Amino acid sequence: MNFSGLEDFLTRGRAVLAKGPVALIFAEDGVELTSTVAHHLQIGFRSLVVLKPQAVDWVPEAEVAPRISTLAFDPFPRDAVPDALTRIIAATPEATWLYWGYNAEYLFFPFCETRTVGEMLAFHAEERRRAMIAYVIDLYAPDLQAHPDGVTLDNAHFDRSGYYAAARYRDGQPLERQMEVFGGIRWRFEEHIPWKSRRLDRVALIRPEKGLQMRPDFTLSEEERNTISCPWHHNLTAAVASFRTAKALRANPGSKWAIGNFCWRGSERFDWSSKQLLDLGMMEPGQWF
After folding, report:
1. Which neighbouring-strand residues pair with 174?
2. How far apart, in whole angstroms, are the C-alpha atoms of residue 194 and residue 165?
3. Containing H/E element for 99?
4. CA-wise closest residue to 230 among 180, 177, 282, 283
5. Pairing with 2, which of 44, 144, 182, 266 sits 20 to 30 Å away (CA)?
6. What are the pLDDT digits (tens) for 180-222?
7. By three-state DSSP, how is residue 109 classified?
């Protein structure tokens, strides 16, 4: 179903949000938008909402079109995405889980090859959790001459090491069980990345509640939802395998000519499996067996 914009979607499209889980894909361009949609349908999202600029000429494939809603949206103005998320959260029933990400990003969670995202979120909700932290894993092409936009699904690489975490502070005080995570090509090429864009942690899965807001720094207004686990044991976390930073570094004229290769001694080929990410400690299974 097509909508003219966010206002139109929130007026006529609320039925899409009535039953989840629902994936919100903010498309900055058309790169790998089709594969992004296919991946999230495959792991079990009931429906997808693609928010894209009018200049992005994309239509879903016929066999999945009934599960896809598209609407015109400009993701580039400051705070456009968090403001849109806040409005969508307010319009979504509390029982519906929402995921949000960008095109050329792919959600992974423990054992996602054999279990659906709905099954995983049902378990997570039983543990009295109403949000889930995901860590963004920067993907990149190892050969930038063959793949000048930095994107290749067939030979994607990522950093297997070089990550670190620091406590999150607000008003000068450390926040309990909240961490800010850094690493990947955002860390290795940090001179080209604005400070506010260097974090890898993201509250990617959200169960709405009245009054809940997404802040401009992509944390939620209820602090407990920004925590990595509950007080008594570890909880599930997820990962978002993302070409977004590689795309941006290759699109920006300054970084494009300054970076000859994304690979280093810590690079590893991505095999598109949750086991690889679990083995490297990039997401947490908690009590999910």
Report:
1. 169
2. 18
3. strand 98-102
4. 177
5. 44
6. 999 999 999 999 999 889 999 999 999 999 999 999 999 999 9
7. coil
Q: What is the pLDDT of residue 288?
A: 79
Each residue's pLDDT tens digit, 94-106: 999 999 999 999 9
- Spatial CB neighbours of 264, under 8 Å, sequence gap ≥ 6: 159, 188
Instruction: Give CA–CA dist 270/112, Å, rounded.
Output: 16
- Report d(CA 100, CA 102) in Å as an integer: 7
* pTM given for the model: 0.96
- Using CA atoms, how far residue 46 sits from 38, 62, 69, 116, in Å, is 12, 16, 12, 10
Both tokens of residue 129?
Answer: 């959790």
Contact 107, 236 (CB under 8 A): no
**Residue 220 DSSP one-character state:** B
| 203, 220 contact by CB (below 8 A) | yes
Task: Judge whether 99 and 22 are in contact, CB under 8 Å.
Answer: yes
Please give the average per-residue pLDDT across 81-87, as a whole number: 98
Where in the chain are the domains?
2-279
Dist CA 232 CA 210 (whole Å): 26
CA distance 8 to 87: 12
How far apart CA 202 and CA 181 sit, in angstroms, is 9
> Which residue do the tokens 């993907």 mark?
139
Q: How far apart are CA 94 and CA 208, in angstroms?
A: 5
What residue has token string 């969670």? 109
Distance, in Å, from the CA atom of 78 to the CA atom of 58, rounded to the nearest integer, reads 24
Question: CA 2, CA 28: separation in Å to the nearest integer?
Answer: 18
